[in-house]
Amino acid sequence: MPTMAPDPSLLLLLLLFLSPTNSAAAVSPSPSPPSATTPTPSSPVSSSTLDPKQLRALQSLNIPTSKDPCSSHSRPSTTTCDSSTPFRHLISLTLSNCSDDVALSLTALKSLSTLTSLNFINCPISPIRFPSDLASNLHSFTCINSLKKLTGVWLSRLQNVTELTVSRVSITASGPTIILSGMKFLHSVTLSQTNLSGYLPKHWHPNLTFVDLSGNHLKGKIPLSLTRLENLAHLNLSSNSLNETIPTTIGDLASLQNLSLASNSLSGPIPDSLAALPGLVHLDLGSNQLNGTIPNFIRDMKKLKYLNLASNNFHGVLPFNATFIKGLEVFKVGENSNLCYNRSTLGSKVKLGIAPCDRHGLPMSPPPAKDSSFDDSSDSSDDEDYSNVEEKKHHSGPSKVVLGVAIGLSSIVFLIVFLVLLSKCCK
Ligand SMILES: *[C@@H]1O[C@H](CO)[C@@H](O)[C@H](O)[C@H]1NC(C)=O
Ligand SMILES: *[C@@H]1O[C@H](CO)[C@@H](O)[C@H](O)[C@H]1NC(C)=O
Ligand SMILES: *[C@@H]1O[C@H](CO)[C@@H](O)[C@H](O)[C@H]1NC(C)=O
Ligand SMILES: *[C@@H]1O[C@H](CO)[C@@H](O)[C@H](O)[C@H]1NC(C)=O
Ligand SMILES: *[C@@H]1O[C@H](CO)[C@@H](O)[C@H](O)[C@H]1NC(C)=O
Ligand SMILES: *[C@@H]1O[C@H](CO)[C@@H](O)[C@H](O)[C@H]1NC(C)=O
Ligand SMILES: *[C@@H]1O[C@H](CO)[C@@H](O)[C@H](O)[C@H]1NC(C)=O
Ligand SMILES: *[C@@H]1O[C@H](CO)[C@@H](O)[C@H](O)[C@H]1NC(C)=O
Ligand SMILES: *[C@@H]1O[C@H](CO)[C@@H](O)[C@H](O)[C@H]1NC(C)=O
Ligand SMILES: *[C@@H]1O[C@H](CO)[C@@H](O)[C@H](O)[C@H]1NC(C)=O
Questions:
Q1: Which residue of 62, 125, 385, 412 has the fewest CB atoms within a 10 Å radius of its CB?
Q2: Is the CB of 46 inside a 6 Å radius of any atom of ligand 3?
Q3: Where are the transmembrane segments (predicted)?
């Protein structure tokens, strides 16, 4: 107990002792100007500035920069530099919200080939062929709503990338294969909302952890080879035209946390092997033509937070209880016309977008739904508030608060009146 508060002078001493080392260590990204300008003879890094050739290159691209892009936070472009001497070199450049007069030039990009990370965000400028030094140095390339239009051949030259993100840019290519097949170090790939057509690749890099090919025009079936990626944590193939069944080997994706196959034309059942993925957090199979019953094992997925099975052809009794549903952040099962829920486990007032079951586990003719007055009051203990379910908020939450306040206020008024009366009568 007495040792809870340390000696303040000791603390001060500790602070004094620590602070100089801290400011020397935080060289470039420190937001406080003093640390960049204070003479720190022990670190030559902070006195060294960007290679003048690279500075000129940035200026020739009309990228607004400050005098020393290595030591400041210039607004529209963000840069990181290495610590070489006498001049530092750019290793990462992010251009966002570019103005119209930014234009890429081969000469400038040649000077910038030390970059390992290059990112365009909301920069609708014209793309040019990257010099080969730059193309081979890049480990990370991001292009979101930028560079107008890209081709598969253009992207395929970035052979050493480990991270590739292209989103909201149209890509002309026969399919993802031509883009990805040569990228031997790829760990994470996003090609989303690019209008990419064709089929999913047959060969995948074994070290992939993140694959997002959502929002394209990809067709055909999900290849078995995709289910052999044992490090894959995130797979998003939603909003494409994929068909046939979900591979029965989907449960081989032992590291999977997010799975979205929503808005495709997938048919058949939810594979049993999915039971082997207890680490699943996000499962979105909505808007397909999946059928069969909803498997019981889903309710044992302890990490699950998001579950969308809506707009399919599932049938039978929903295998979930109220505790399970309330534990989820998002739960959607609506628009499955042959699916129903058990009123003795979920109560009669739930609004899941499906009908309650009859005695045989078949949907009863749907109640006059979307009406908060629906209440056949057969059992009264089931006023469940599924706050994560769509079509909520019809319930008595707010009115209970109002009622409480009203009761509180009126009792205070009553008390005052009572006291006044009391004081009058007892005079
Ligand atoms: C780019 O513009 C958007 C809005 O147009 C803004 O929200 C965003 O912060 C801007 N980004 C940068 C890095 O300036
Ligand atoms: C990838 O990087 C290595 C060195 O790290 C280099 O030798 C090779 O040429 C690069 N590959 C491509 C396709 O640029
Ligand atoms: C994809 O194509 C649609 C129409 O076919 C178009 O409206 C949309 O802008 C395209 N998306 C991109 C990123 O080019
Ligand atoms: C995959 O990653 C591991 C470790 O990160 C590495 O040893 C292995 O060489 C990589 N495999 C390939 C094919 O790049
Ligand atoms: C999958 O992609 C869609 C469309 O790009 C997006 O709306 C959704 O949030 C993504 N899912 C996950 C789990 O990231
Ligand atoms: C799936 O799509 C492919 C390509 O669009 C088509 O050739 C095939 O017939 C479709 N399969 C089924 C079962 O509809
Ligand atoms: C799962 O998806 C969410 C939302 O898109 C994302 O924030 C999270 O990083 C993803 N998890 C993994 C392991 O990629
Ligand atoms: C599911 O749909 C397929 C056709 O897509 C059909 O062959 C199969 O019998 C259906 N299964 C069930 C249980 O309805
Ligand atoms: C509800 O279902 C979960 C499994 O999802 C189970 O662990 C729990 O015991 C059930 N609760 C009740 C009250 O039946
Ligand atoms: C609904 O649940 C009750 C109690 O758990 C059970 O006795 C009954 O058989 C279930 N009804 C259907 C249709 O599954």
A1: 412
A2: no
A3: 401-422
Q: What is the mean pLDDT of residues 144-161?
A: 96
Q: Which atom of ligand 2 is nearest to the CA of 182?
A: 13
- Evaluate whether residue 81 is within a structural domain: yes
Q: How far is the CA of 198 from the centre of ligand 6 (A)?
A: 12
Residue type, position 423, single letter? S
Task: Name the residue range of residue 117's domain.
Answer: 45-148
Q: Is there a contact between 141 and 164 (Cβ–Cβ < 8 Å)?
A: yes
Region 6-32: mean pLDDT is 39
Strongest mean pLDDT among 3-17, 86-100, 320-334, 407-421: 320-334
In-domain check, residue 95: yes
CB 198 within 8 A of CB 174: yes
Total structural domains in the chain? 1
If pLDDT is split at 50, 70 and 90, which confidence band does 387 have?
Answer: very low
Which of 218, 243, 246 to probe ligand 6 with, by most ligand atoms within 8 A of CB?
243
Q: Is residue 64 part of a domain?
A: yes
Q: How far is the CA of 165 from the centre of ligand 5 (A)?
A: 14
- Whether 91 contacts 115, CB under 8 Å: yes
DSSP state of 222: P
**86 domain residue, yes or no:** yes
